[in-house]
Amino acid sequence: MIDIFLSTYKFFLGATWLTLKLTxxxxxxxxxxxIIFAFxxxxxxxxxxxxxxxxxxVIRGTPLIxxxxxxxxxxxxxxxxxxxxxxxxxxxxxxxxxxxxxxRGLIQSIDKGQMEAARSxxxxxxxxxxxxxxxxxxxxxxPPLGNQFxxxxxxxxxxxxxxxxxxxxxxxxxASSNFQQMNTYIIVGLYYLALVLILSYLVGKLEARLEVxxxxxxxxxxxxxxxxxxxxx
Length: 233
Known about the structure:
Elements: H1 2-42, H2 46-61, H3 64-74, H4 83-109, H5 112-120, H6 125-155, H7 167-178, H8 181-216, H9 220-232
């Protein structure tokens, strides 16, 4: 196994970088999609709410590999996507459905009295959401988002089945040439494990940093309200 590791580490490091680019791209797009559809789910407009409900139910109810195949093969007559972008968009759309539900639940968990207090002071809805509700929701979202990002990292291995040489695609290619499938797959599993541990560490540090900031500024929400009241008067 050590011989395989030493002979393939350059190949797998390149594949690791490709996996990271794919994961970061898809998670950024997925977070944007998720936030938009979270607001659609919370909207009082039935059309937006209905659209978000259909999107979330369809995406969560179908396998990710099917979504990747549809974007790569199914729409080839309309637009041709590279394996990278087919995988990135499929992962973004897939993770966006889960992120939307994360943010919807967390926004609804914030005490409604805070929004009512902001509105009573004359603060517009979008400003109250941006300055009062969303900062608290983002802080609470760190643990579930961290879990979703880890799932997204591991789910990225499915793009290998549309010909992309990410970590798992590189493992399939290497295993077919050296005929040592078990050892090769164990080595690639360790690469994935290292990425997950690094991501978990970064999420933990961010969560701890936000906890320290909240202890140093415990009345930040009400301070924002006071500043708005002073500016308005």
